[in-house]
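Progress narrative, Year 2. Work on non-chaperonin molecular chaperone ATPase from Mycena metata advanced from sequence curation to structure prediction during this period.
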Amino acid sequence: MSRFSRSHRHRPTRTQTRNAISSVSLIFLTFLAILCLCPVATQAHEHVDRRAEYGTVIGIGALRSRYYLLLCWFHLNTLLSSSVQRGGRVEIIANDQGHRITPSWVSFAENERLVGDSAKSAFHSNPTNTVFDAKRLIGRQMDDPALKRDIKHWPFQVKEKNGKPSITVKYQGENRDFSPEEISAMVLVKMKETAEAYLGEKVTHAVITVPAYFNDAQRTATKDAGTIAGLNVLRVLNEPTAAALAYGLNKDGAESKVLVYDLGGGTFDVSLLSIEDGVFEVLATAGDTHLGGEDFDNRVIDHLIKTYKKKTGTDVTDNARALGKLKREVEKAKRTLSNQQSTRIEIESFENGNDFSETLTRAKFEELNMDLFRKTMKPVERVLKDANVKKGEIVLVGGSTRIPKVQQLLTEYFGKELSKSVNPDEAVAHGAAVQGAILMGSETNAVDHRYSPLPPDNQQTVLIQVFEGERTMTKDNNHLGQFELSGIPPASRGIPQIEVTFEVDANGILIVGAADKGSIDESSRGNAKSITITNEGGGRLTKEQIEAMIAESEQFAAQDDLQRQRIETLNSLSNLVYGAKTEFQDRGGLREKLKEFDKDELDSLLRESGQWIDDEGPSASHGNPREEIGRCSVLVDVRNAVQKYRSHAETSYDDTNDWPEWDHNEL
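Result:
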């Protein structure tokens, strides 16, 4: 078995690699991780205007701890942002709370599903049914050691289902299982709706960014999440490339080397890019898909739990509600410490009615996380060494790069001031929007970043096993699947030639083709066969699974719409009832013209209707809320009473005809 030589890390000239396979009985070992190290890009394509076909392409900075929505594409992260490029400029789209970033959180309540800011706000009261960190789950296997470590910090339940993680929550009175792809899709739907509300048009196409260090399974799962959300994912774009686009580093035609340091909420990666004439090439990449702001928070949380136990004798490790409150306040404190030397963490009714109060200093925060901060410097050294280049331009991406100690370590290492011209939280989404505009045909110089194709070793066999990883032995790497090729004529060693094509598309998805060249020359090729990857590892969703998840997503959307109708109906009803109270209780108004027994009857009806709204209204309808609430007898009585007293009261009250009629149209 042979590994790739270092020469394969140099720039290929094609997006497909074809080699004759001539050795017998060898297992084909493909290190997909080297894909991230091999630079390949396509030059500017012929300008094609696809705006009519695609509409507005949104960019989502996703799979981070928050999402950023730009008017042109999506970025999947622990935070989300959406953006669009219009009129030659990128716009960051604020969500319905007015925030430019949306937490990648989903909370399942008894009768509703919350996404984003509202889900995060509900965490302290509903921790076991609030899901976050989908980026650390998506595309992984349940036996992943890093995943096992993370489960200890999550209040929600994660269990194994067909070898993959499945999230169990209580929703609508029953336990429901969701895949990480489904959870991510729920947040993507939220971003899609945010973009549609801003644009006033339907959105169907998007660009989603992922860490350069994401493997094949994680990239495929990310694209599946977009499909489940009803989006045609045009590109799964590398975050370093998107960041470089955001910083405008593609404007100068001269060749330059840029190091992108991306430290977000859930992952960390460092990539060295070569940029020349609009061509982006990943020369080297390294990182840790389980290192980020969440880990910094967990260090502080563990410290505060021990401190609280030492002071009170109470261990809150298994108290999900208390941990939810602590997690929220620790994240706030971490952000505060980027600008202050100390902060006070105060939590009322932390556990069992007891309050929590503790001071956290920047020095203590740095002490708790110093080994993690220094750990981020090793990949920086590694990529520079692998690419054999000197220190140059550095670009910061991710909210965790705001931590003063991180900036200090980078400044000392590079010996220069850091580039801070772009908001690190929004850089990736910003770049995704630029790419979305390019794909729409809004610009003539397309930058179609691709990973390097996979150079295979020459060999002959009917069974080709594909692994990813950087270990020497196949047992130490991740088995992607196996390819079976039929119809190969038996022959002596070295005579048959099998042309195997390994291609990675623009989304980083592996595509394989094979042909039996036989003993004839290139111009008269023998039988061509297709290779099918066997999904033995269970790392990818099947077409049927994706279709089922899409249907379920549409079902949730319908349920959410029904819940919105119910809330709007109850709000309208409340306004009418309390408006009636005001009208009939106003001294000198209609009430003064009524007889005493009429007043008592009306007061009783209004009191009953108000009580019904408070107690029964929220669960009044499982069908059409307008119809079922409109049939409530006490409300019908109120309507009739209002009409009766208007017509019979001795009054010159002229405005009563303007008081809204209580009928089904109003409800």
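The two ends are 73 Å apart (CA to CA). Residues 181 and 225 are 5 Å apart (CA to CA).
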